[in-house]
Write a structure and sequence with these properties.
By secondary structure, this protein is of the alpha+beta class. Helix content is about 70%, strand content about 5%. Strand 2 and strand 3 form a beta hairpin. It starts with a helix and ends with a helix.
Amino acid sequence: MSESSSRRYKGGERLRRRGAAPASIHLLMNRHVFTAVRLLLVAIGVTIIVLAVNWRTVMVIPAGEPGPGGHTAEVERTLLVLSVEPAGPGAMLVQTDAGLEGEVAANWIRPGIFDIFEHANWWWVLLGLGLVGCVYPLQATRWWLLMRCRGLDAPWLRTLRLVFIGAFSNFFLPGTEGGDVVKAWGATRGSDRRVEAVMSVVFDRITGLAGLVILAAGVGIFAAESNTARDIGWWTAGAMLVVGVGAIVAFVVFTRGWLQLPAVTKTFGRGLPARLFEAGRAYASHPGPVLAATSVSVCVQVLLASAAGACAWALGATHDITVILAVMPILFLAAAVPLTWQGAGVMEVLGIALLAVPGVASVNQVVGLLVLYRCLELTWGLVGASLMMGGGVRLHPEHLDAS
């Protein structure tokens, strides 16, 4: 290489390095911004919950009504209550921290969140635990169907085992997607069709989200009597229609070669979008298993929403089942966004907005039902922890042993 060529080569290398450095700095800054936004959302959610929840039992006396001791005020008063005892239909005998005692209307009492848990009906919680337990075999069947139609040889029991491990792993990453990462990793280990294995996990998640949307839209439009649930149904159905039409248009444009998109993807490499469209085209040739997987997803979401309803009823909420079936899928969708751990803060804010109704459920009961629901999932997730310790994370251990 001549001296002039060498200088040009070194100069080009310096320019490339200078171009790479700003790109890496830009990527790092984007990550920091995303982390800051997540922390801000967590802080906002936690602040709202702390301010909205009654940590101790209080009594709210309406303006102009006599409280304990016969005192009347022109403004609403909130008094801290030390003890509450039934005193007949619609009445409670209370003692306040100021030493006042008397009989008051039962609807004046706002139980603290710890008192709500203390007086919970744990039979409802056990029912919810059983409902959540029925979900994992269904989820394993859904994923197994999606793998089998692509020719991926996956034993059902091994699939169920990895689903349990994924459920445990959900508690270690933001949102509820950690299990998908672990499932994809376990499915690809020892497999010679890694792309198809990963795409089966992706489409398993897609059919799961489709089940959420179909449940919320169907119950909200056709079954719910609550205005809130009905509005959720129509908005969900509209969003589902927009997303569906967009997906169909994109699929047709890509597969028919309009706008020369296949040529573009070949030029710039076969990245995730191209592989998603290829997987979508492959699954489109197996409508039976895809429809079956989506139907299983609806059953899964009905069970999960019903388990959340059991948690609500355990704490004394009186929501109708149709309201629970319409609202809980929206909260599950919010939890799936990888912003906070298990959707903490995001689910509570949405739940308070949609489920906290005077005379039906208090803010404390809504927050409490979400806490109980996460405990149910964690309980079954511990099964996945024991399975993971017993045999690692892999769907095809025999392939690894053979290699």
